[in-house]
Amino acid sequence: MDQLGGQIVYVVVALAIMAFSVLAVTTRKILRSATFLLFALFATAVIYFMLDYQFLGGVQIAVYAGGIVVLFVFAIFLTSHPGDNSAKLTSRKELTGILAGLAMLIVCGWAFLDRCTTFAKAMPEMKNPDMSVIGNRLLSSGEGGYLLPFEAISVLLLACIIGGIVIARKRTND
Q1: In sequence order, what are the residues at sequence separation of 6 or more whose Cβ sits closer than 8 angstroms to the Cβ of residue 50?
Q2: Is there a contact between 32 and 9 (Cβ–Cβ < 8 Å)?
Q3: Between these two residues, 85 and 53, which has the higher pLDDT value?
Q4: Straight-line distance from the first to the last Cα atom of the chain, in angstroms, rounded to the nearest whole number
């Protein structure tokens, strides 16, 4: 694929990821939300395949798009009526939520830009890294490593699963 064609495909796939992600969190039908999440995960796999990281693309499809979304769908079927609309949330603290969201967006943007500049300065020789270099960087605990965020996300996902089980038990006991 030529340079311009690859960039166009990348932009289209990136826009699809953003659109499906927003739809996944804004739709009121929970089964549609899981479907939009599935589409976003498949589009992420397309990005991996475009970067010639076939293993990561396959893992993305098998583990996330296949396993996690199926787990979510089973949880939806076991805990609620999938065709029902979720209740519309009402709150008088919308302004506080919007301000908190904007503050988090600024903090995440700053962290992202800081991390990118640090990474660019530390690794000028990584113009075209292979999978072993990326794997070592992702799972290293040293400077520029991502082991701690990776483990923090796994603990967060475990807490979400436990919270879902607790909520489901409360609903069945009522």
Answers
A1: 6, 9, 10, 13
A2: no
A3: 53
A4: 58
